[in-house]
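tool=predict chain=A
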Amino acid sequence: MPISSKVFWPLFFLCLVLISGQMLLGQEASRETVASEVQKHFLNPKPNFTFTEEVPGEEALTKQVNYFFKDNFLYIDYLSRESKEYKEALIDSVCAFLETQGWKISNLVLKRRTPLSLEDLKIIAVRHICPFRVSAEGKISTLICASALGFKDSPERKFEVEAFTFQSIFKEIKKPESYILTRVSELADLARKMKFSTNPDDLIKRVQGMFWILFYSDPKLEKLLLKEYEVMAKFLPFEVVDKKPS
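tool=predict ok
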């Protein structure tokens, strides 16, 4: 006897729900399995901080970890270059990301996320915008997100925060109309007018301070950082604890 449409469609959607639920429940892995999957991205490239963005494979875990590496390429790139002990934190981040996608990860004990003030987040972020040279004509050259140039004399390093702010700023300066690049040009013109010093070394240090203070107080930079943080917050090893209302 044929099934009427009144009966068929409810049964059809019920089957879809059951199948979807089974697929979701089937997404399980141990932390050790995730660690092995992460390690595949670092097997071949040299030097040892470089990595493969995508590894071959059709398994669900492989695809999800590939997605994480592709979507957070800049974060991983900076972290792996600057920190010698980045692997464990990276594995935990991938596990936390998988949990946001509905996976159940066994043997996972995530550390309490380190609290970070919005003030400290901005203090670290501005160091990625680094005036570094003054020409004989007085032209100021600025490097942005040039690895850890701005942190070479930093009294304290927070590599995961540096990596996050690196990715946030780098993504913004790649936009066709980057406000950061526009602002850098404006501040360079202003610094030339202020004639900080006739000594090039003193001058560039004063220009760096000027750039960092003005970018620190720039509400656009703060908004950019918080917007990117909301995207990555669940799998970052730190937590911004005093975010301002959006």
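Residues 134 and 200 are 7 Å apart (CA to CA). The radius of gyration is 23 Å.
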